Amino acid sequence: MAGNASIPHGRAAYNARTIARGSRQLCLKGSKRLSAPVVTERTAGAVPRMDSTVSGERRQRVFSGIQPSGNFHIGNYLGAIRNWVTQQALYENMFCIVDLHALSLPTTPDALRRNTQSLANILLASGLDPQQSIIFIQSDVREHAELCWLLNSVTQFGELRRMTQFKDKGGGQDEGVSAALFVYPVLQAADILLYDTDLVPVGEDQKQHIELTRDAASRFNARYGTTFVLPKPDIKPEGARIMALDDPTVKMSKSAASPNNYIALSDDADTIRRKVRRAVTDSGSDVTAGPDKPALTNLLTIFGLFTSQSISSVEEQYAGKGYGAFKTDLAEVVVDALSPIQQRLAELEANPTAARDVLTAGADRAREQASAKMAHVRERMGLGL
Ligand code: AMP
Ligand code: TRP
C-alpha cells in the first residue's frame, strides 16, 4: 500500500530534529509559500503589538492547546496536530497541554498525570520540535489562571451560555456540571491572549471559542486601551471535522461511548483493520464523496489526508472497485501512517524524562512572556498600587 508522505519513516532512535526536518520538507513541497509569513504593524490592523521587542516585521505567532483527556485519535491528529507539525517552521509557535481545562470534567489525579505524560509523548512522537516550538503544560504557568479571572470581568454570562461545547458536554444538566465547564472558554481566551497570538490552528469545533476570544479582547481593549492582539482561527478546509466511524453524522470524539467511534493513535494494526472493516458505509457501492454519502466522504477524507492526495484522485483510483477493496486499502494506509509515530511513541514511553525535560524548558520560556504581559495587563486594569 502507498506509504505515507506526511510522516517521516522509521528510525532507530527518537530524534526531534530529524522529524522536524521531514515535516518542513513536506510543508514546502506541498505549498508554494517558501518563506514565513510576516506581520507588519500595518498588516496587524488596528491592534498594534504592545511589547517593545517589535520593530516593523515579525513572524506570526501561533498558539494552540489540547486537553490531556485520553484516547487521542486520528481526528485530533488530522484536524490539529498534523497541521501544527507541518507549519511549525513558518511561525513562532506555542503548544500547550491544557490540564486546567481537563479539570472541567470529572477526572482523578492519577488519570490526569498519566494523560498529561502520554499526550506529551504523543506530541513529540507526532513531530512537534522543541527547537521550533515552545511546548508546555498550562498549569506550570500560573498567569493563565490569573488572566482567566481578569477576562471573566469582560465576558458576558449570556455569551458563555450560548457556547455549543458547553451545551454538548453539559448535556443540558446545568445544575450538576462544574462551573469550570461554563468558564472554560474564558480560560481558553486567556491562553491565547497572553502570548499576543495571531493564529490559532484548531478543528472546526473550536471556531466559536476563538470568536469569543476576539470579542473579549475587543471589549477589554475598548475599556482599558489596546492591550491584546485579536487572534484569527486557522481551520483547514479538509480534516477540520473528522466524523465518527460508527456514525458519520457526529464528530470523532475522545469521549465517545464506543471505541468503534474512533481510531486511537495507540490502536494496533489489527484493531485498526477491524475498526475500518466495521466502519459504517452509505447505500450504493461507488467509492465517491458527496452530501448524500457522509460515510464515504469521511473515509475518503481520511485516506486523502494520510496519503497527501485529493479526494478526487482517490475516487479515480477506486472507480468500479467497490467498498470492500477501498476499506482494505484504507486500513493499510492508516496502519502505515501511524506506525512510525507509534514506534517513536514506544521509545518515548521507555524514557519518560525526555518529555518532562522538554515541558520544563518550555514552561520557563512561556512564563517569561506571560509574566511580562500580565504586568502590563494589571497596570492597565488598575490592580495594585
Ligand atoms: P480536544 O480533543 O477537544 O482537546 O481537541 C484537540 C484538537 O483536536 C482541537 O483543535 C480540536 O478542534 C481538534 N479535534 C477534535 N476532534 C476533532 C475531529 N473529530 N476532527 C477534527 N479535529 C478535531
Ligand atoms: N478548547 C480546546 C479543545 O477542546 C483546547 C484549548 C484550550 C485550546 N486552550 C486553547 C485550543 C487555546 C486553542 C487555543 O480542543
How many individual helices? 14
Low-confidence stretches: 1-36, 40-55
Write the CATH fold name of the largest domain: Rossmann fold
The number of distinct structural domains comes to: 2
At the first level of CATH, the class of the largest domain is Alpha Beta
The major β-sheet equals: 3 strands, parallel
Order of helices and strands: HEEEHEHHEHHHHEHEHHHHH
> Helix share of residues?
40-55%
Radius of gyration: 21 Å
Overall residue-averaged pLDDT value: 87
Bound molecules: adenosine monophosphate, tryptophan
- CATH homologous group name of the largest domain: HUPs
Report the sheet-strand fraction. Answer: 5-15%
Q: Give the end-to-end Cα distance, rounded to a whole number of Å.
A: 67 Å
Structural class: mainly alpha
The count of strands amounts to 7
CATH architecture tag of the largest domain: 3-Layer(aba) Sandwich
Can you tell me the overall shape?
globular
Notable features of this structure?
385 residues; 2 domains; Tyrosyl-Transfer RNA Synthetase; two-stranded antiparallel sheet; binds tryptophan; globular; disordered N terminus; mainly alpha; 50% helix; Rossmann fold; 3-stranded parallel β-sheet; binds adenosine monophosphate
